[in-house]
Amino acid sequence: MIIGVPKEIKNNENRVALTPAGVAELKKHGHEVYVQSTAGIGSGISDEDYTGAGATILATIEEVYAIAEMIVKVKEPIASEYPLIKANQLLFTYFHFASSEELTHAMLESGAVCLAYETVEKADRSLPLLIPMSEVAGRMAVQEGAKYLEKPMGGRGILLGGVAGVKPANVLVLGGGIVGTQSAKMAAGLGANVTIVDVNLQRLRYLEDIMPANVDTVMSNEYNLRQLVQHTDLIIGGVLIPGAKAPFLITKDMLKLMRPGTVMVDVAIDQGGCFETSHATTHQDPIFVVDDIVHYCVANMPGAVPYTSTLALTNATLPYALQLANKGWKKACRDNEELKKGLNIVHGKTVYKGVADAWDLSLTPVEDILGKVIVA
């Protein structure tokens, strides 16, 4: 198979979808890999590193899309890439369709096969290609939250861990999944008082057992949230419904209950955000203020630490990319239920329920697609 790796062009996105080690592994299996010039430079990978592993360097993004049967990316295509995508071309990347109607319709019109990292799902319901970036984002959320709590950045002027004789900050973490767990560990390690809320009592019991003494667990409901936000300095939103829009746990009217300068970090912004007042921001312009509350809603947080993020992501994606390349997308998805759940849009049809529900689209059972004879 011919595999293309374009340079990421989303604002301040410095990750790359394939490392030289990944190139070498794909070459070992007989595949051709084309990488856009300087695609890896933000992650500390040179063109020479790629050619040394067997890749061919192409000068432009147009050349990469034109030659490739499978495009491997990190972030969803943006508008300038839409015309480059070909019918029957396989795109393997993060899509987060439920947060963008424009992207959804563009991919439906393209006729491409869109296999989303974020909905590849194991039998235990874990999301293996989302986990590494959730780990990075969860840890980064505390770093960024601590920074924006500083007065010159618009926050209340609170040191997360406090000092002798002065209480530490109160941190509220929404969701006890990967993001929430990593956020809580980081905030607790810095000395903050942390509260994790979740609707899953079994998960809360687990977190209660593993977390340090300065982390409390509370059942998530509107009443409890309204009480908690009144005394919280930093709120981190890490709720997730795979492939679907995130629920609004913090509504606009709740902002009036908070103290001015409270900081909210919406890690769920890729899926539409879990704060009603959220909208996606960039590393270039990361925050905005509503009712004296600082909102940090960067949609590609791990892009700010690309060296770590690229290695963490490609460690997880390469085994799946190899299956797709070795077998073709149809056979790979027939053989592997995890990959099958990654299919979101195929040849102009929506095959993932969360995406169909988000934009009121008709849903085609993925089995109908995999059962038909379609040239990949």
TrEMBL record:
MF GO annotations: alanine dehydrogenase activity; nucleotide binding
Active-site positions on this chain: 96 (proton donor/acceptor), 270 (proton donor/acceptor)
Keywords per UniProt: NAD, Nucleotide-binding, Oxidoreductase
Matching PROSITE patterns: ALADH_PNT_1 (PS00836), ALADH_PNT_2 (PS00837)
Record has tRNA processing as a keyword: no
Record: residues binding substrate: 15, 75
GO biological-process terms attached to the record: L-alanine catabolic process
PANTHER family: ALANINE DEHYDROGENASE
Protein name per UniProt: Alanine dehydrogenase
Species this chain originates from: Siphonobacter aquaeclarae
High-level lineage: Bacteria, Pseudomonadati, Bacteroidota, Cytophagia, Cytophagales
